[in-house]
Amino acid sequence: MHSIVKTFIAIALAGVCTTQINAEEFQQGRVISGADEFSVLSHKARIAPENAMLNERMEALLPALMAETELDMWLVINREYAEDPVYYTLVPQPTFAARRTTMLVFYRTENGSVERLSVNRYPLGEPYESVWSGGNLDDQWQALADLIAEKDPARIGINVSRDWPVADGLTHGLQQRLREVLPAEFQQRLVSAEQLVVRWVETRSAKEIEVYPQVVGLARGVIAEAFSNKVITPGVTTTEDVAWFIRDRFAELQLPIWFMPYVTLQRAGNGCTDEQAFCGQSGQTIQRGDVIHTDVGICYLKLCTDTQEMAYVLPFGEDQVPAELQNALAHGNQWQDHLAAAFKTGRTGNEVLEAVIAKSSEASLMSSTYTHPLGFYGHAPGPTIGMWDNQGPTPVRGDWPIYANTAYALEGNVKVPLGMWDGQNVQIMLEQSALFDGEQVTYLAGRQTQWHVIR
């Protein structure tokens, strides 16, 4: 393109939509060089802290949530090969299955404490008291019915839900069997436990908050390793090569992923319109001048992460990221700040989204927000704050309110036109794990405010 035309484009871009931002203004930026900055426990060594976190949740959290949701009893009944989604959040480690049929009973006493009872052929041990073991399946179901009659709860929560998959773990067959063994008066007391399940899964305990930064730091550390010359040789390495390095590195660290990592790139001439949901391309060989993006998620100590970061491959002869790209990343950080500031206790996910869109509009940011809770699952239950294909209200899940001590993947993107790309947009896709404590949002292991650089 003729130099005069490029000059006119640069002037237009500077005046219309690329307000310069000082990146130093953004708080909680943190550079992590690699996963070796963090220790990883062996599988054996993970058992004690995971069970300590479970015991804390049982003692401090469950009684409060059962009172909040006004349930007198909560039943979690499941079978091997068809475990309830919430089952592994409730049982001590190491547990790999609901052997045969496993029945967990939580009963709220008059003093507010919760009895934790098991009706199982194979007793679970702490933190459960076994009230029946051994015998045949018919005896087991009758023992459960007798226990319910003895406790005489007014409202019995079972895991059935139309809208929340995590709260819909009681299978049709088990629900039929439960109703068969219960007297009619107790059948009438069965109610959905969906509110309790969502609150149980979304709420983070004190011990979990203490270890969560380590989990997120490991995820960010592997991204830093991947986005380096130790992994990427410009002109040779493909986006798939980098994605498989990430997967193999997590396997080496004995950290399970909850989805296949993916890596995409953007470059001048590939196009990125305002209307495109996502502009990155996969299946490409990485070249100098490319912008690279990755999305990864791991789970460790029962806690899951979801992280997206950006890298730039320096052209030959250059030694720093161009100012335009630094400014584009700063626009992404500005969008993050708008999102974090919108978190208020009691505000719904849809209301948070509305506030973010309003702020982005005021700042002339071309942004898209699709943020979700984190915790025992990467896509955890709780308030949905936008979706990539719906920047309006989300029924039911978007109507869920924000509570204190909940974690989120602050996920979304901004598009910024670049003079160096002849006016083509670059899409800055960011996602960082953060905690809302009821007052403010804090990134669990910092956030990306500087580009990863491949030289």
TrEMBL record:
GO molecular function annotation: aminopeptidase activity
Pfam families: Peptidase_M24 (PF00557)
InterPro entries, A to Z: Creatinase/aminopeptidase-like, Pept_M24, Peptidase_M24B
Record keywords: Aminopeptidase, Hydrolase, Protease
Residues covered by the Peptidase M24 domain: 219-379
KW Hydrolase (keyword) present: yes
Name of the protein in question: Xaa-Pro aminopeptidase
Organism: Pseudidiomarina halophila
